[in-house]
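Below: protein 1.
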Amino acid sequence: MTSKIRCCGAILLVVSIILVVLSPFSAKAGAFNVNKKKAIMEVDSFLQIKTTGSSGKIKWSSSDKSVATVSKKGKITAKAEGSCVIYAKDGSDICSVQVKVEDSNKEEKADTKKADKSETTLKPSTVYNENGITITADKYTHEYSKSSLKLTIQNNRSDDITYSANSVIINGFSFTYTNYGTLYSGKKASMQVDFYDSDLEYAHVNVIEEYKIPLSISSKDGDSLFKCTVNVKTSAYETGTGSYEFSGSEAYNKDGLRIVLLKSKNPSLKHPFGVFVENNTDQDMFVSFSNLYYNDELIASIVSGFNVLAHTKYAGEQSFFLYGDIGIDQLEKVDLELYIQPKRNDGWVSSADVIISDLVSITYT
């Protein structure tokens, strides 16, 4: 009886020793783990993997580093679209994370690479969201214009408003642009900003990088509420103007204003000359012309003008066509009367405010 008890006791002692020896390994095998088994990531995003039950230094690795990499501390970086496995090794124990990397901008990037001169690479976006007004920008297809922009104005205010714009700035050059309307509470309105290649040709703008559009917002009764500037950046949109050669004749350079008349001998141009104005003053200006002479002959008593905003430049062709039998090869001289007026706070100009009045000329010989 006693021998049997001693035998059983010995057996129990051996089993206990075996359990004591084996239990740490069994506990470790079940305890070491990662907090994620699967993960869906976006290209260029990060994900920190956490572990539990580790008994020492963990070694991390990726089955495909071109898809995703992992740091020594378990931080995953998504590199490119695809799938891979991230491994965490603790001694003889290994845990894995199935990673799928997606690229939601893949189609947009492909469109950008394929973009040609007929479309902008502008991404639809909100460009203004203050004072109860939300403005979004998007590209706009126009039959005659390649460099078109569409703005959608949403009136979130409780009152009706009016909006107006009289200039647009492209790459620092201001151009006359007129758009206005009434916008009722809770309603939307669209503004299309259309440009032709010829409008940008004299400015040598063949890649549009940024639009800026100053807007005036007033109450329906005409009381000014606030002013804002809409900024829209594009992704190197080519206008297709190509190269253009011209020479200039400085007509005025004083008190922060510089005016150069630009002449062309390009037979393909219907308009024989343009104008460059640099406004370095703190005030918006209105530049206008009257009484056009070709070769000392009065062609027309006309009025043509444009806005040049403060601290911007203007360069563009003027709508003065060649008349009669005079071709661009026969044009020797152009004379016209030049007027410059500062714009008032309400956006209007008055003949009483003319600060420059002069006869300016371009010689073609």
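Below: protein 2.
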Amino acid sequence: MAANDSEGARLRERLTQATDPSVRGQFTDMSLYDVLEVLCEASKSALVHATSGAREADVYVRDGVIVDATFGDTLAADEVMARILGWRLGRFQVAFGPVQRRATLAITARDLPAAYERAQLIEDETTMEWDDRLIGKLPDKQG
């Protein structure tokens, strides 16, 4: 769970009950993974708008199933999920209501751990690529 357990618990309750038309929070209080897990387990329908720096993504949840995700125009929905589940900094807004979106995914709460593992692998690969680039720019040591 998130670093701020009391705020995370409050957000979890608000997401489960869905008495408010929308819920906002920060990833430091509740991760995007946790937000989606709660919505799926509670069989909710909502649009989740997530931001991390200048990056923005939308995740569509219908009756507890993630049916689509968008991040720019070029990535397929499964790639979007793989890239955003690992976001550690940023904000989210959950807008409850019917989701009229063509399903390109079918991710349930049971499927989220595998999607998260994929996100971690992509993040690790990206980190290694940056490390390789930085190492390649270091001057050679001459003995």
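The radius of gyration is 17 Å.
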